[in-house]
Write a structure and sequence with these properties.
Elements (H helix, E strand, L loop, with lengths): L1 H6 L3 H15 L7 H8 L4 H29 L1 H18 L8 H29 L5 H29 L2 H21 L14 H6 L2 H17 L1 H4 L1 H7 L4 H25 L5 H21 L3 H29 L5 H12 L2 H15 L1 H29 L17
Main location: membrane
Pfam families: MFS_1 (PF07690)
Keywords: Cell membrane, Membrane, Transmembrane, Transmembrane helix, Transport
Length: 406
């Protein structure tokens, strides 16, 4: 039944997901950026860190602005343009002189901008390709394709780096070029209509408090969720656990997501999005609470199982829910706002978590757990209040009609 549903997806969408798998498997350059600049180019750790920070700033800007470009010029055009620009930055990085730290940082920021812009437009392409009742499933399948590629990429990058570090950038460029070609060849051309609106984002958001609350709670939950990357390794190290055990835990989590997230989305497609998201938030909180009371390998294993279950519930559901809420012609910009909120923890988690772990290590994970649970309560209550306040209308998800996949 599940595989039959995949077969029923549009041919171009299945091609895009294959392209995502290839592109994610080759997404190596910026994973290894700091190591490359220090070991291969002879930069100091401070200079490499500056370049990596510039990439992060660009990534945030791309996630915020990419959807506007997609709504304005077409999702297909924006997705291809961002992939091609990424190819150029990958090819340029090995050619830039190491003494030009300002140029290296500027190029890294441009790369982040291009990479960040690609994500919301691809999410919007998937969302607009499917009817509302299948969007969670489509988003989950898209995430599955990307996660499957990510399980291949890092080991491949390590092998290439040992032979010739520049090959890391070359492979990234080639696989991104493949993705651009897939989008250009298979995604249908623009189908614009006069009814598509491209203005009034903030007015639209002001009329839908539930989206603003969801974005705010996503920022909170993403920050505490990413403690499994920012501070859990320190917790396990201090408990005497070898680093390889942590790597195995994260790898197994990725495999579980690849195998189970899309079938789970199909199984839960009839349930209200806000309830699924709230339960996902609560499971993230429960997993963090386990880490707080059982800071050892067995506790971390149980915590990762629970947190991964929460991630599989809330991430594809929230992505699709924001697309459902978008007025016609604004799916790209709504997807951009969600994409930016969902990576906010990349910047907030290390800074906040690192400081807390240094000064009050015993409080970090209990507080993080409490924040996730509060976010779950807020999400469920605000959505309930909104439904009571709104007059009867079309069923949930009907606002996000499929629009142009240009």
């Amino acid at each position: 039944m599940y595989w039959r549903r995949i077969a029923d997806l549009p041919t171009w969408l299945k091609a895009v997901m294959v392209g995502q798998l290839v592109s994610s498997a080759g997404a190596l350059a910026w994973i290894y950026l700091t190591l490359y600049l220090v070991e291969d180019r002879g930069m100091s750790a401070q200079q490499a860190g500056f370049a990596a920070a510039a990439y992060g700033i660009g990534l945030l800007g791309g996630n915020l602005g990419g959807g506007w470009f997609g709504d304005r010029f077409g999702l297909r055009t924006a997705a291809v343009a961002s992939q091609l620009a990424w190819v150029v930055t990958c090819c340029a990085m090995p050619l830039v002189g190491t003494s030009w730290i300002g140029v290296v940082a500027a190029l890294a920021a441009l790369a982040g901008l291009c990479g960040g812009a690609s994500r919301p437009n691809l999410s919007a392409l998937v969302a607009t390709a499917l009817p509302a009742e299948r969007r969670r499933e489509g988003i989950a399948l898209s995430r599955t394709a990307s996660n499957a590629g990510f399980t291949i990429g890092p080991p491949l990058g390590g092998l290439l780096a040992a032979y010739n570090f520049s090959l890391v950038f070359l492979v990234d460029a080639v696989t991104s070029l493949v993705m651009a070609a897939v989008i250009w060849r298979f995604v249908p051309a623009a189908r614009r209509t006069a009814s598509v609106r491209v203005h009034g984002l903030w007015k639209a958001l002001a009329r839908d408090r539930s989206v603003l609350v969801l974005l705010a709670t996503i920022v909170v939950v993403d920050t505490v969720y990413r403690q499994i990357f920012a501070t859990m390794p320190l917790l396990l190290r201090d408990a005497g656990t070898p680093a390889v055990a942590y790597g195995v835990l994260i790898g197994v989590s990725s495999v579980v997501i690849v195998l189970l997230e899309a079938p789970l989305a199909v199984r839960l497609r009839g349930h209200r999005a806000n309830r699924v998201i709230a339960i996902g938030f609560a499971l993230v909180g429960a997993g963090l609470a386990i880490l707080g009371v059982w800071p050892a390998l067995v506790g971390a294993t149980l915590a990762i199982v629970v947190i991964t279950a929460g991630e599989m519930l809330y991430k594809p559901t929230a992505t699709a829910h924001v697309a459902d809420a978008a007025p016609e012609g604004m799916v790209g910009r709504y997807s951009s706002l969600y994409a930016a909120a969902s990576i906010s923890g990349m910047f907030l988690a290390p800074a906040l978590g690192g400081s807390a772990y240094q000064h009050v290590p015993g409080a970090l994970f209990p507080v993080a757990a409490a924040l996730a649970v509060v976010a779950a309560i807020v999400q469920s209550q605000v959505r309930s209040a909104d439904r009571e306040a709104e007059p009867a209308g079309p069923p949930s998800g009907s606002r996000g009609r499929p629009s142009s996949v240009s």
